[in-house]
Specification:
Length: 267
Amino acid sequence: MPLAKRIVPCLDVDHGKVVKCINFLNPKQAGDPVEMAKRYSDDGADELVFLDITASSEKRDILRGVVEGVARAINIPFTVGGGIRNIADARLVLCSGGDKVSVNTAAVENPKLINELADVFGRQCVVCAIDAKRNRTPNDGKTMVDTAEGEVWFEVVTYGGRKPTGIDAIAWALQAEKLGAGEFLVTSMDRDGTKDGYDIELTRTISERVNVPIVASGGAGLPKHLFDVLTEGKADAALAASIFHYNHYPIPVVKDYLRKMGVTIRQ
């Protein structure tokens, strides 16, 4: 029997409030993180992701009080990311109720951080978040991927979408896996908040090359989009925000749709 796919709501938090962006820009408030987390837990979410989206760019610590409040309100696994730069930051998150830590900018700038976290906490606790954007400039040194709009490569972007790095996202995923990443959270900057569907090529290309779970993020607008990324995109989990935050498609509705489409999904 195939492993069950996971449905994962995401709380992008900016100074204590859940926000929603489009292409990582123009955040609009969507609600209170503790209240929303409890609703998703009660609705049957398999996991929850909490991202403090301005902690890295503002070079500040994650909002510990909010993390603790969310942890108390839910009874599902909980990944926390944003501003985690070292072992002490990760320990604080895990001691505040997080089950896994997600690292992005700090890991790109100091790849050994992944290895250090895996050594101390175990790779099952270490999520490597990759924010990637399509780059249409031909480059022999990058992993070129055929898409409907021609060949592209996927560039890693850090600091909440503010800093292009020139790094090939596929190569970075392979390196991060060797260093000890136990899971990848792969977000398409191009699709983020658009509700146009996930970047299937991005998710599938990474999924086919690594041997740890992939959580796909960026672009969910319809239940079919989650179906597409879990099947064609070969993701192990689908993360979504807008469709859940604004109750367009509650979690039970999405799960029922996926079951009817033949996807093995948790109750």
